[in-house]
Amino acid sequence: MAKLDVRKSVDRALAKAEVSDIHTHLYAPCFGDLLSWGIDDLLTYHYLISEFFRATDLPYDAFWKLTKREQAEAIWRALFVERTPLSEACRGVLTTLERLGLDARGKSLEKIRGWYAKQDREKHIDRVFEVAGVRDCVMTNDPFDDAERPVWLKGYRADDRFKAALRIDPVLLNWAKTFPRLADFGYKVSRELTPRTLGEVKRFLREWSERTKALYVGVSLPPTFNVPESSDAATLLEQAVVPVCEERNLPLAMMIGVKRQVNPQLRMAGDGVGLARIEPVEYLCAAFPKTKFMVTMLARENQHALCVAARKFRNLHVFGCWWFVNNPSLIAEITRERLELLGTGFTAQHSDARVIDQVIYKWAHSRKVIGDALVEKYQDLAATGWALSDDDIARDVSGLFGGHFRTFLDRKL
Ligand code: RAT
Ligand code: ZN
Questions:
Q1: Residue nearest to atom 9 of ligand 1 (CA)
Q2: What's the rounded Cα separation, in Å, for the pair 332 and 374?
């Protein structure tokens, strides 16, 4: 196949690929206002809030006292009107508007708001999925969230486009505060991780993964995360979480490397990144060969070791370019590294979208960068004389954009 054909074939496959977006913070429509959408939510995304504070001398408190509408206006003015919106998060807003057919060149926030005010939420959701080329997404479902839990207990309506993932950060990372809450929910747990308490944590995990029909169990972990060790987190992980994951054939998704609240004044925008160790991942994969692990890491410097670990363990599925590495230059590098070390056996990206409109830009930008990496690799392959077909390329692309994830879910080890 000639050079040009590879490009065309990859573009065709990318245009056709129906993405499964395997980690987002989106919610099915039945969760009401938990599902964010529209221009004010786009502008007050926490990625943009941290950029805004670099561009203003406004005291933190003064910003937090503003309404969401006023915050959005301040961010629009500082980052889009007074400065060139070059950053990935800024450009994302503009790609989204452009793909929705809006013209932001006049820099009139009011015009954009006027357009959004006329949209029907349900129709808008349908449109976003269509424009983004996304077939379904995985939510982040936290049973400890007081806004979310009641919906699961009463009023949940399944929507095929929104699958669940059971998020368990409070259990693993803050047992001292979480056990009284579990006790309130009716689980017979104590501060000490006795066999009875661990049994009750397992019951909680079984009941909630069943209730939500979770595709996987998930947690975000600090760079200091360590197993094996004698800590609440390690004990709960090895003696409650992993056994339930194995029993129910659910992967445990670990997102490793977030340093929470490096600057608490920024609230949700205040988290940072730290270099983690790969040893805990290697240990878990080796000690629990029948448990499936999905891992993404936040530090650029951890990506290579993660690929090498995935070469050693078939129960390890690498996914996504997470948060601070979800930038074109890093996606380009990481995707090439993965293709070189893992072939096509990984999930290339997830969006982490918090506002439904964001899936439009996150996938438009990632499709382009991942497509370029694939073209380069296919051209190298073609140079050996290997005959590539359109079908090969379509199969690879659909695997990288969600197919391999679905296969991994079905896999029994
Ligand atoms: O990417 C993000 O929006 C982060 O705030 C986090 O949500 C992170 O992705 C996580 O799931 O912990
Ligand atoms: Zn996330």
A1: 352
A2: 10
Neighbours of ion ligand 2 (CB under 5 A): 352
CA-based nearest residue to 313, from 340, 278, 348, 337: 278
The tokens describing 239, both together, are 């003696």
148 close to ligand 1 (CB < 6 Angstrom): no
Whose Cα sits closest to atom 11 in ligand 1? 220
Mean pLDDT in residue range 1-13: 83
The mean pLDDT of 7-25, rounded to a whole number, is 97
Decide whether any atom of ligand 1 lies within 6 Å of the 144 Cβ: no
Task: List, in order, residues 6 or more apart from 292 with CB less than 8 Å away.
Answer: 245, 249, 250, 251, 252, 315, 317, 408, 411, 413
What sign has the CA pseudo-torsion 34, 38, 43, 45?
Answer: positive
Confidence of residue 2 (pLDDT cuts 50, 70, 90): low
pLDDT at 1: 46
Ligand with an atom nearest the CA of residue 219: 1
pLDDT tens column, 47-57: 999 999 999 99
Find the 9 Cα to ligand 1 centroid distance in Å: 33
Number of H helices and E strands in the chain, helices first, is 20, 10
Q: Which has more confidence, 385 or 1?
A: 385
What is the atom index within ligand 1 of the atom nearest the CA of 258?
12
